[in-house]
Amino acid sequence: MQNEQLMRLSLFAGVLLLVALWELVAPRRPLHNGKGKRWFTNLALVAIDTAVVRFLFPILPVALALTAEERGWGLFNMLPITHWFKILLSLLLLDLIIYLQHFLFHHIPLLWRLHRMHHSDLDLDVTSGNRFHPLEMVISMLIKMAAVIALGAPAKAVLAFEVVLNASAMFNHGNIKLPGSLDRLLRLFLVTPDMHRVHHSTLVRETNSNFGFNLPWWDRLCGTYRSQPEKGHLEMTIGLKEYRRQEELSLLQLLLQPFKG
Question: From CA 183, how far away is CA 110, in angstroms rounded?
Answer without folding.
Answer: 35
